[in-house]
Amino acid sequence: MLLETTIIVVYSIALILIFLYALAQLNLLFNYLGSKNKEDNSPKYNLKNPDEIPYVTIQLPVYNELYVMERLLDNIAKIDYPEDKLEIQVLDDSTDESFEKTKKHIAQLQSTGLNIQHVLRDNRKNFKAGALKEGLKIAKGEFIAIFDADFMPQKDWLLRTIPYFKDTEIGVVQTRWGHINRDYSILTKVQAFALDAHFTLEQVGRNSKGHFINFNGTAGVWRKECIIDAGNWEGDTLTEDLDLSYRAQLKNWKFKYLEDVETPAELPVVISATRTQQFRWNKGGAENFRKMMWKVLKNENISAKTKVHGLLHLLNSTMFLSILTVAVLSIPMLYIKNEYAHLKMYFYVMGFFVISTIIFFICYWFMYKKTYGNSIKNFVQYIVMFFTFFSIAMGFSLQNSIAVLEGYVGKRSDFIRTPKFNISNITDSWKGNKYLRKKLSVNVIFEGLLMLYFAFGMYSAFIVGDQGGDFGLFPFHLMLFLGFGYVFFKSLSAKV
Q1: Quick check: 213 and 206 in contact, CB under 8 A?
Q2: Which of 129, 355, 375, 395 has the least C-beta neighbours within 10 A?
Q3: Known catalytic membership, residue 51
Q4: What would the pLDDT profile of 49-70 be if each residue is shown by its tens digit?
Q5: Taking the complete model, does pTM exceed 0.85, yes or no?
Q6: Quick check: 187 and 271 in contact, CB under 8 A?
Q7: Which of 93, 148, 150, 243 is catalytic?
């Protein structure tokens, strides 16, 4: 009975953690809906008054971005802001042929009178964080706008973000990500679905109540003084943006999130690129939990509720570990339930997962209908999209759980940037991209085995017990089978 008891306890703890996270999401939904009734009376710079126009530096950290550099530079050159109050830094760590092409393109832009500089360094120490820190040393701007290579801010982007810095307590203004290739494939639709929830429900839900949010690494502006005061960029985690965000807010800097300012960007279209991005984000989240947990708990200037939301925010990636634990143990639990009748009362805890799923379903619907509308047709499409997202997210749970565990034990790894493709519609092709990994991850093999494992779980529903089977977990195992199957076969067919 020791093994059975251990399985029940671990399974129950994982389910309760998922349930607590779902409750936090529900609270963020209430915050989000409540924020819509509030009028924004933030003080703003009057940029029509020359005396109020601050100097701005735009930083573009890039590394081997052959396919998107021309698009990036041409787009940034169109930014509408007084020329004498703007400089652009291309923080270029490239080691391939994109370097020379970028150099020539920058020279062409300089000939038009644009204040754009090609900023280089001798090594890639601390990767993106190191490049941003190096550029900051010579940045003239009072405010630092940052864009990754696949982002394309609108012409009036600075005019819509910089005014909010008139409030001297504001350290960061973050904008919402848009997706230029949202409908390219199931993979991009699922990524857009998840990111839309983050950039509406979570960012607004936290920011509206003064809880900690994060600069998202791009499509935002920092007050230079805030960066320095918080300790500057550090490269000891894979998510330097989350790290600096928490250090800044722990020093009482305020963040301003602008849901209405959308910054279009490109989603990864190949599963290997998505895996790279997911691994970095989830490992970085775990690293930041280790780094920031006690600092958040011990800080006397923030409320208990903000501390709870902050810890759950830092634990976001750990949900994948909880989901994988529940998934793997669900099949032994099915057999235990049907073998030991006296333990059946303990299986009411399974209801936590159903309730959690319903909560997520409700929360994400409010976000989905904001983009697509709330007609019956859109609701039906949402149901399909929600369960597709849920299945594929669970399919990524093995890799993301490994990332989380590596983050918690302190295993260091390089910052592997996400390959860009310059793809905006379904006719564009990613094949031939030189930055794609050419060998399969060993995790793919285990994802294939998990697909078979959950096929066995579905089969088990027909044979357990003596009452003609038990189909309570069948839908869950079906979703897991489809999710791991999708990730497995997509990884094989892409040959990356």
Answers
A1: yes
A2: 375
A3: no
A4: 999 999 999 999 999 999 899 9
A5: yes
A6: yes
A7: 93
